[in-house]
Amino acid sequence: MSNASDLVPRFLSERIVGGRARSPVVTIVGPRQSGKTTLARNLVGTHGYRTLDDPLTLQEVSADPLTFLRGLPHPTVIDEVQHSPALLRAVKLVVDEDRRPGRFLITGSADVLAIPRSRSRLPAGPGFTPCTLSPRRRSDGLKADPRERRMWLGSYITAIVQRDLRDLGAIRQATAVPRLLTIVAAQSPGDLSTSALSTEIGLNRATIDRYLGLLEQTFILRRVPAWHANVRTQQIRSPKTLIVDPALQSHLVDVDGDQLARDPSRLGRLVETFVGTELLRLASWADGEYRLHHWRSSNSKVDFVIERGDQIMGVEVTISSTVGTDAFRGLRALRSAEPNRFCRGIVLYAGPRHVSFGDEMSARFH
After folding, report:
1. Which residues are paired to 27 by β-bridges?
2. Measuring CA to CA, which residue among 338, 316, 87 is closest to residue 230?
3. What confidence tens digit (pLDDT) does each residue in 9-36 have?
4. Is there a contact between 221 and 240 (Cβ–Cβ < 8 Å)?
5. How many other CB atoms sit within 10 Å of the CB of residue 292?
């Protein structure tokens, strides 16, 4: 177990501790290599640690999940639970027998609440507290050697395709997934056309939609819905798709820092992806419920719209080192469309200081 003093503090820790004080089951879900295991073992300890990455443990679970659970100490960490959805169904039965708080801290490299085979029978309400661990930057610890960085990121994608996606569902065309990821990364952040993807990759639209859903369940990409005061309209507009980590995005499209410096369009996409994923990270542990959207009208757009309660805030992203009134055109259009809900507009730019443009509009450096 890592020395707690050596660890970067995780903002989600307090929420997990609070959940374990009142709930029999707390789940921590998030991408591979995001620190789930380290966090769980430092919160609970190693005595009750079990991982389904261990073939013998997985075999024991598959043979008789109820006997496995009933023989565990209190408390217990069960790691990488997505390998056995049947175990999640058994958890409900065991928790119904003994609802002591803090019994199980369950981790998964996929959104276990979205797995069809387990969703209908998971403990609900106060007995089951879900927590999503935001991804750390994949570039952490990979700055020294570009070759090692490429190898690590390549093996990361291989692990997702060959193990995590197969655990979630049948992948008949696994070789198409890296190609799909590369196209998504080249367009991130952007509106994806499943028809265009179907033509380019050679898979039908239903398969493309299913694969995108599986990639979202494994936290490789996120889809940010379009915003509108009318919920039905939100569902009609196309979502904006983000690769969850800029280092992974750069690897998938095979660009380095020198190439980005020569290509402002690619750099702009990468920076906007970075801002979107950071906003999602902040929303995952912030007090209150924040929802992230994007907004587009017939002649204006706002990169991100943050919604909380009956208020919205718009965020525009640019790589320019200067900013003028034209940069606020989309934000002002959003304010005109929703004057009673709009509270602030921010342009994130590459300049040296914060600048106020009046009427709750400002530019801030990123």
Report:
1. 106, 130
2. 338
3. 777 888 888 889 988 999 888 888 888 8
4. no
5. 20
Number of residues that this document lists for the chain: 366
Q: Is the pLDDT of residue 160 over 90?
A: no
Q: What number is the average pLDDT over the span 57-61?
A: 95
Residues 165 and 218 sit within 8 Å (Cβ to Cβ)? yes
* Alpha-helix runs per DSSP H in 36-175: 36-44, 55-63, 65-70, 85-97, 116-119, 146-159, 165-168
259's enclosing H/E stretch is helix 257-262
- The alpha carbon of 343 is separated from its chain's Cα centroid by a whole number of angstroms, namely 26
Nearest to 105 by CA among 9, 215, 31, 13: 13
User: To which H or E segment does residue 316 belong?
Assistant: strand 311-317
The helix (run of H) or strand (run of E) holding residue 108 is strand 104-108
Dihedral of alpha carbons 65, 68, 71, 73, sign: negative
Mean pLDDT of all residues belonging to the chain: 84
Q: Tell whether the model's pLDDT for residue 258 goes beyond 60.
A: yes
Q: How far is CA 249 from the centre of its chain?
A: 14
The position carrying tokens 């959805």 is 85
Query: Does residue 315 surpass a pLDDT of 90?
Result: yes
Q: Report the alpha-carbon angle 94-100-98, nearest 5.
A: 30
DSSP conformational letter for 9 = P
Helix (H, G, I), strand (E, B) or coil at 242: strand
